Amino acid sequence: xxxxxxxxxxxxxxxxxxxxxxxxxxxxxxxxxxxxxxxxxxxxxxxxxxxxxxxxxxxxxxxxxxxxxxxxxxxxxxxxxxxxx
Length: 85
Hints:
The chain has one domain. It is 21% helix and 19% strand. It contains 2 helices and 4 strands, in the order ββαββα. A two-stranded antiparallel sheet has the order 1-2. Strands 3-4 form a two-stranded antiparallel ribbon. It is globular and about 35 Å long. This is DUF3039 family protein. It comes from Pseudonocardia kunmingensis.
């Protein structure tokens, strides 16, 4: 297994304002993404791909206690433990 560094990133809602929001611009959920893609996306606006397959540009960093995508978390934990394959 290669050394795969990841970091939790936000899920960006691309729907029109007023639909499924938290009342402010805080993302509802954060995702795991390869670390080396974060700065590139934040600077250039490139889209990143989360472990769960969700795609979005990096716009925010998670704060401690932020909700994490359960699918990303499960995939990340299976990679850390060597997986079941």
